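Blinded run. Sample ID left blank on purpose so nobody reads anything into the name before looking at the predicted structure. Input follows.
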Amino acid sequence: MTSHVENLPGVTVRVPAKINLELRVGPPRPDGYHGLATVFHAVDLVDHVTVTPAERWGVDVEGTDAHLVPEDDSNLALAAAKMLAGAHTEKAFPVHVHVCKQIPVAGGMAGGSADAAGALVACDALWGLGLGVEGLHEYAARLGSDVNFALVGGTAVGSGRGENVVPALTAGRYEWVVVQAEGGLSTPSVFREIDRLREGREVPEPRPAPELLAALRQGDVEGLAACLYNDLEEAAFSLRPELESVRDAGLMLGAVGGLVSGSGPTIVFLARDRHSACDLAAALVNSGAATRVHTAVGPVPGAQIVESTPPA
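Blinded prediction complete.
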């Protein structure tokens, strides 16, 4: 590695968790994926991804449930960095990726996808590629269904398998309580289960609900709560029946709405305001319904550079 590369600073990117305010799942496609109509919503439960010049490629992970995240080539953040490097060999060089986790692992909040987006943005800056978010979208789409949204954040409508993202008009901010279940749920297993449960049913092509988009435009918390919907919730409850009890407990304790986030097992509750969110979080813990609880607010921006770290 040249001295010029060795003296480059590392780049740290903050990336948000996502909630699916609505997730409608179509029938299986010939490519094995399912068509989706979803409304993504980024919240301030975040990971930090740092890339630094290195003699060889590598990754390490710290933070919440870090032991559950691979530290080899199957790590999505490292895979993102290597994929981008493969397309820009004239400027790219090996990096070490450090991930600091706060987003639940295998929790349905797209933590792995967020880390991949963070690695793309960090490497774009470190290598001086000048792609920006728009130029990174084609790489994000190859990595996974939620990576494109993690680049842009905010609130957005997703289609295709989730990789086509269009910002949604929204007003106001929304307060959430996030219940992190013990253990994870694999996304493929949840999709297999929804296919099993639907066997013999006619499954329409998914479309977003106009009522939910209208509630977001108006900043209507009660209206949004009434429209929260997730087709995968049935499958998550089938695989982990105890999750339904947690969802019901949160609604009884004062949440205006609640649902499984993505493929689960994380459950999110919408509160009327910040004070109500804090009260709900405490009530869930005190009642014994949950032990790992976070409060969060959204929408927040997608992947953002927060620091350039001088070389050691």
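Unblinding after everyone has recorded impressions. The chain is about 35% helix and 30% strand.
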